Amino acid sequence: MLNKILKECDDLMKKKLEHLDHELQKTRTGRASTSILDGIRVDYYGTPTAINQVASIATPDARTIVISPFEKKLLSEIERAIHIAAIGIQPNNDGNVIRLPIPPLNEERRKQIAKEIKKHGEEAKVAIRLVRQDINNKIKKAEKDKEIGKDESADFQKQIQDKTDAFTKKITEKTEQKEKEILSF
Length: 185
What we know:
This protein is an alpha+beta fold. The protein has 2 domains: 2-26 and 106-184, Ribosome-recycling factor (Topoisomerase I, Chain A, domain 4, Orthogonal Bundle); 42-101, Gyrase A, domain 2, CATH 3.30.1360. It has helices spanning 2-26, 51-54, 75-85, 107-144, 150-184; strands at residues 41-44, 47-50, 55-61, 64-69, 92-93, 98-101. Strand 1 (41-44) and strand 2 (47-50) form a beta hairpin. 23% of the residues are buried.
């Protein structure tokens, strides 16, 4: 039973870390990255569809994203979806492709993005701690119900704390790396 609880803890903490990775990927760094288009849906014959399923997306240089729709009539739909998503980039439609010029970040904007990154990191750490709290409560309940002994309970709680510390350290490393990337570009 306790091994199942430990596995559950590990899985939940990994999910929180993956969520942080996803949030950091979406963060604009001043470089062209197709990940800023993730989550944007285009109306494709009445069905909301991801942009990468109705167009090819490329980054020919560090400051431009080029979207080439598979069907020309989707140009206006893609352009509208980008406007609605409010990603902070003005699309340029030339009749064949849509170009998204990535503007360079000024110092003030870099600092603001760095704060957002720290916020995402703190939210992830809080989520990890909440997982630890829930798992520890399950262990304490098992101890209270006489399913495990006091020593075994303490050992498992220590293992949970070690996992929490390891995941918190990973979060700190990831956020510091992303901050450094933002502030040094």
